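Q: Convert this sequence to structure tokens.
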Amino acid sequence: MTKQFNVKSFVIITSIIVTLLYSTGCANGRGLDMARALFGYVEPPEAETVMQAMQREYNLCMKVEAKPECVQLAYDKVRVTKGLDPKPIPRGYVVIVQEEFDGKDESSEEPSEEPEPEQ
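A:
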């Protein structure tokens, strides 16, 4: 019976201590931090975004050898690492066409060559 008494008293004393520590932490607004400290919680590292991973891989490639394929190599490596869809970067040229609009831009108007009539 001595063993049961010791186990019961240990559980009761431990629960009282945990309750007091937790309530003290809650009074300071740090209850969650206190509970995490008691149970040995370690925060996971921050997840790296796809953009950060691409920038890191691109910089590594450019440090080793500056070549135009570094963008595609960085994309391929990050795509495999992050499990993204295998969509290749399109190759080619982009042509930008500027259309004229009806509005008149005063700064681009040329001054008239005809002199104004004198009165």
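Helices lie at 2-27, 31-39, 50-64, 70-82.
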